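Re: Re: token formats

Sure, here are both.
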Amino acid sequence: MTDTTTPSETDPSHGSARLRLRTGQPTTPISPTLYGLFLEDINFGCDGGLSANLVNNYSFEGVYLTNGTLPYAPLELIPDGARERFAAMAPEDLPLEATTPAGRHRDQLRHWRLEGGRLESSRLGAATPGASFARLQLDGGQATLENHGYPGGRPGMAFDTERPMLLSLLLRTDAFDGTLEARLVDTAGTVVASGALHQDAPGWHQCQVRLTPATTTLGSLQLVLTGSGTVDVDEVRLVHEDHWGAGDPRWSQGLLRRDLVEALGALKPSFLRFPGGCIVEGCGDGSHFDWKKTVGPLVTRRAEYNLWGQAREDGDYSQSNQIGFYEYFLLCEDLGLAPIPVVWAGDSCQTRQDEHLPLESAEFAAVIQDALDLIEWATGDATTNHWAALRAAAGHPEPFPLDHLGIGNENFGPEYLAHFQRIKDAVDRAHPGLTVIVNGGVIRPDETADPAWEIYGEDEKVLVDEHFYNSPAWLFNATDRYDSYPRGGARLFLGEYAAYLGYDLGDRHPAVPEDMLAPEPNTWLSALAEAAFLTGVERNADVVAFSCYAPLLNLVENGQWPHCLIDFSPSHVVQTANYFVQQLFATRVGEHVVPLDGELPDGVFASATLGDGVLHLKLVSIGATPVTIALEVDGAQDGAAAGTVIGGRLDAVNRLSFDGEPRMEVEPRTVELQVRNGSVDVVLEPTSVLAVSIATAAPAPAPAV
């Protein structure tokens, strides 16, 4: 939205303040990686979201979490305000008991429904050794094999008349006499596109057909057999032709959904942390994220259950690994992001199942080697290294950049720290230029990652990863959190955070009225709290080197975590209010912090940075009345200054239903402010964020020493 009018003129009846911004003073450098992304396959963010393939259980390899497995949550780790939510997840009292190990259930035909004929899973004569495939047997007449897409309970594939689709699959029809047809059908079963599947080769062969929907709708894929005999099917992929990277030979394996990638790019992030998150750790029994199973041709990748299936009926969440480390690194390359992979440290998810590999075991030695092999896969010489050769074979002979490596996720305690040190030592010996990231655990209110800071606080080659999901009130009160963090050694990696209302402890900032505690996720209240908090992050960007919001993606009406940055349906993408705050901060940031002289009014938070001769000022007002601020900017050039305002009711939410259209209640709007004689008068709207960029004659200051 654009508003070319000047903001309200100064009104002396408003609360007021005067601030001076000293653009010519030496200041703290801003980390060039301050704002980034964290991507985990939760809420169907990858399978069913970022993956361009609309087919659920496309390879007939479905692996699912045993129904009823629940998170293990030691009582002392749960904030008081969240205990009721945890208790509602199980009838027993806290702490919840875990299944040891978490159960694994193979259901190779889940999400496939056959009408007519017989359907079974087989491995006999598979296209790839050890693979499963579907075998359809028909004694005459017609049979229809159907897949609804994600999440699977109803038609969930997006068809668009303006977007042709490509269906590809492996077929073996040597023992079949008849015809095969692919159909796209709407929710009523009406055919909106169809095409013949040709049987022109013996044995396994790939078949492709282009399908252009006649109607824009949600629907399902059908494979229709007419005749008699046996048809074997595997690796069924249905993608829009305009998927991300279409026509690029590097994108030879997993493919990505274009509109979601574009939404990520519009945030202007500097890095991507992946693949998790709790799925890195797993629930024991080999369920951790094994990067080696996610590179190489798709036909060689095997599925694993997703532990977030604990919130799905019958554990219904399988990781197909179509988005693996190769795809993550390519995404980073395309968007200009620094890749920050996280490797398993030999420790399970400790809020579910507190298991650790013995330090001196062969199993843990393999964990160390896996970390070293990842570095070689990403950066090694493809002519001399097996793993690097696999990267080259996929279409990327050149090495990927890799400067940082996360070791474990949200792990803590002596076992983890011993694991971390052992892996760090191996990485330091083999790749001394790499910076490693140690876990600080999940931060409860009034806590810091003390054990990690005590051990590694003076090590400049270590980043300490802190995570928190606390109430909006906590974030309002934590804008000065990093003011007292130690300088000169390890820096902070804020790897996951959000103003998550599920953890509302009932405290609040003095300027916040009681009715600002809202019960719904992704309200403007939560985004406003995050904006206030980020002013403190920017002011302390010498110690906060990285920050990324979590979770990132959410398939609406089917999530496991209710507060995310981007909501999407099969057809649409909606930026939450929180998204717009992240975008505002990441797109208006300079290279150095600018000091502010003057006293901010109660309920107003500010940060200012300077880069390329432009001052970027953010002002966050959480009060219920307008606030007037007179700005004096050293070296400011007179004329128009572009600004962006985001505001709304505290309970405003941008909404999207699974089969509906977006409904936006919070959106940025552009404003124009006038600079006269180095001064700017602004009126901050109630509960709003204002960012303004002002050209200055001041040279970029030298870094502080």
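Second one below.
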Amino acid sequence: MPIDNLVQAARVSEEVVLQTTPYTCAAASIATIAQIIKPESSITELDVTKLAGTDRTGTSTIAEIYAMRVLGLDPQYERNLSIQDLVNRQQLAILHVMEPVGESKISHAIALLAIDPAKQTLLLGNPLYGRQVKTFDEMQDYWLKEAVFVSGELIQPS
């Protein structure tokens, strides 16, 4: 059952679209990337939720890819990746992770925004918290080693 009626007014923190429901992390992350690639657009979490058919189970990877294709983001799904693969690609992406929440971990989607190989850090757009910096080491038990890359290049770390 669609959850469009649960999505609240758009919230943004440091250019990261924040999710307004427990189910819309992928939709918010895709909206973040769409706004970076197409700053003239006003793609929202709700727009992506409708496109992807997000429901109470979240957004499937296939639905993410479909929505990104409709938005003209030229998605490419890859798995069994390494941090070095992300460094080599230099592309914005949706990363699938296991987000610690309290005593447990939940399946979650975040936006890869930038990589600083010299500092061994990634700048992430986490729709729960806004911008986050994680080290390559911190990503090992967090990231599920899969990504949906899009046509846009990473932003430059500041």
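The chain has a mean pLDDT of 92. Helices lie at 25-37, 45-52, 61-70, 83-89, 136-139.
- S.
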